[in-house]
Amino acid sequence: MEVRYTLRAQSDLETIFIYLEQRDSMTALAVKNFITQRIGRLSDFPLMAPETDERRVRELSVVRYPYKVYYEIESDEVWVLHVRDERRKPWRE
Domain 2-85 adopts which CATH fold? Predict the structure, then answer.
């Protein structure tokens, strides 16, 4: 299964990566790689995360870090919809 990103998800990741780079560039690389690998696993295990209250949307926790990946499965593709920092306000406010 192929993993694709919405424009919003791409922007989310870019914002997160810029934030991390500004804090600590050495640690940022490790965190970026971890997030990317975790999302990449969706290609082999698209049902690995539980569904949310919103129909068809699943929520993948990035274990060890405060990030959540929201995605949905459409035929043979996984669409990453949103990547958010859990330390911020709730997504649906």
Answer: YaeB-like fold (3.30.2310)
**pLDDT tens digits, one per residue of 39-63:** 999 999 999 999 999 999 999 999 8
DSSP 1-69: -EEEE-HHHHHHHHHHHHHHHHH-HHHHHHHHHHHHHHHHGGGT-TTSS-B-SSTTEEEEEETTTTEEE
Residues facing residue 72 across a β-bridge:
57, 79
Instruction: For the chain, give every domain's residue range.
Output: 2-85
Residue 91 has a pLDDT of 55
Cβ atoms 85, 66 nearer than 8 A: yes
Query: Any idea of the CA torsion for 56, 52, 44, 20, to the nearest 10 degrees?
Result: 120
Tell me the whole-structure pTM to 2 decimals: 0.89
pLDDT single digits (tens) 1-19 = 999 999 999 999 999 999 9
